[in-house]
Amino acid sequence: MIELLAIYAWTFPVVGLMGALLAFCGAHLATQGRTLQSLSIAQGAELGSLVLMIVLFSSVASEIELASWIGIPGAVGFAFFCGFLAEKILLLNLGSRSTLLFSLWIILLAATQLLVALHPALESHFSRVAVGDIATLTRSESQILTLILICLGGIVFGKRNQYLYVSFADAVLGVRSNGLGFKIPLLLVFLPALGTWAMGFLYTCAAMFIPTTLLSLSVRAGAREHIFRCCLVGLLAPLIGLYLSLHYFSGVPTAPILILVCAITTIGVVIVDSLKRLVSVQS
Amino acid sequence: MTNEHVFCCSSFSILLGSNQLFAPLSVKVERGQVVHIMGDNGAGKSTLLRYLSTENVRHTGEVAVRPAASDILYLPQIQLIRSHLPFTLEEVSSLFACQSLQPGSLVKKQRRLLSEFPDWFNAEQRGKNWNDASGGERMRALLAGALRLSDRAVLLLDEPLNHLDSRAMEAFQDDVLRLVESQGRRVTAFLVSHAPLELLSVRLRSRYQPILLQKLPPEVDMP
Predict the structure, then answer these.
(1) Which domains can be identified in chain B, with CATH numbers?
(2) For residue A181, is pLDDT > 70?
(3) Is residue B7 within 8 Å of residue B27, measured between CB atoms?
């Protein structure tokens, strides 16, 4: 077991940091009403990653072993394109914007399925970007990702108050910040795209929205505290989940285990909060 | 026209399709004035503020000067009632300092808010969840932030007196007066309001400038 943990030693910081950052993103994106937009962006990242693989497979000799890093430009580029489309839909003065965004996501999902059906060779790559196979991250991938995530975490931490202002202005005052301007793309496009490439669509969406939505059931005053708790759950739940996955469920994909542990941990926090409030009211 | 002007226009009107929203307006607004924008419902008061907040709005006429984006604090009417993030009223106020201050000084400002702003907040209101607060409490939180914590020189306030009780209205008018009369910043305030700002108009006299927008019937086309 210790050998197994040693092999995946660098995967732990990746899942922890990614979980915390995605939870931060999710709290802000849910406040800004960008949940459905995020689905399209993550799906776009999945599709973009596959498209780039196909282009490279058809243009470069197939015997060349392609590093999985080539998926990142495709994921980020296509995520930006989908983000742009979704932003245009959000800016429309229509009551059916949510349905339009949902339709965009379904179209992207269908396009992804079609691509995989036409290129069976991409099945394993599709499996990674769709469901997520975190345990397949190589040591070098994990090390570079850790470094990238630490840098992104530093930026997000430094700008945390400005993000709060943007989210509040967007949600309550209706002052729509330019989604393709300077501050939003990191939250809206880059982190979800990176998450999709590294952890898969399913895990990325779950890590973004499960902590913030479940924790909002435990009503508390304080946006900063809510975000801190989201990040804490986002950090710890995947670490526990990955340990359990490696130790007890090595035969099943890692991402579903991580998602379930994330949901259970968050529900646990909500229950503990409710009990604490009950005790304080009674006393 | 001098550097003292923040907004100068002639024969200005905002276009909705090919129709002018209000009768052509010619106005010069100087620093340190309180501009009270009035007009019937649908006359274009809020749209004019949105234009001033540097939003790209089609218009007729000539605009020689308009405020720079970096000088503006725009407080539109509250759009949604609930927020996913559970902001406290104090957090809402402190957010107005976010765009120009470092986090360290933000905390200091926030502490000052606690001790020095009893006219806007009492201790109980400060920790209240935005989603549970009344309309008046929310407006107090927004105005306390806009008037006390922001360092912007042009305030665009859309219906700031909505929901306020008489004590908060007085605090609001005192704060606006203090800002426009201060020698350093010389704040200019554009207020959209249906309420008569009698106190302001009496106390400011030379600084008070009313703008009455007159609605045009939609069938009037551009010349």
Answers:
(1) 5-213 (3.40.50.300)
(2) no
(3) yes
Coil, helix or strand at residue B183: coil
pLDDT of the residue at B64 = 86
A259/A202 Cα distance (integer angstroms): 8
- A10-13 contacts at long range (C-beta below 8 A, 24 or more positions apart): A10/A137, A10/A139, A10/A142, A10/A143, A10/A146, A11/A134, A11/A135, A11/A137, A11/A142, A11/A242, A12/A239, A12/A242, A13/A142, A13/A146, A13/A149
Collect all residues of chain A within an 8 Å Cβ-Cβ radius of residue B103.
Answer: 160-161
Is A71's pLDDT higher than 80?
no
Mean pLDDT, rounded, for A190-218? 89
Cα–Cα dist A281/B13, whole Å: 58
Q: With pLDDT > 70 as the criterion, what percentage of chain A qualifies?
A: 86
Our CA-based measurement puts residue A93 at a distance from the nearest CA of chain B, in whole angstroms, of: 14
Tell me the ipTM for this assembly.
0.80
Which stretch of A35-39, A124-128, A270-274 has the lowest confidence by average pLDDT? A124-128
- Model confidence pLDDT, tens digit, residues B147-180: 877 778 888 998 888 888 888 888 888 888 888 8
CB pairs under 8 A between A and B: 74
Distance from CA of A167 to the nearest CA of B (A): 9
Task: Using an 8 Å CB-CB cutoff, list chain A residues near B79.
Answer: 172-174
Domain total in chain A: 1
Nearest Cβ partner for A173 among B79, B98, B127: B79
**H/E stretch holding A126:** helix A123-130
Whether A226 contacts chain B with CB within 8 A? yes
| Interatomic CA distance for residues B74 and B66, integer angstroms | 14
**Could you tell me the two tokens for A184?**
């939003």
User: By residue range, what is the domain housing residue A225?
Assistant: 2-282
Q: Look up the CATH number of the domain holding residue A147.
A: 1.10.3470.10
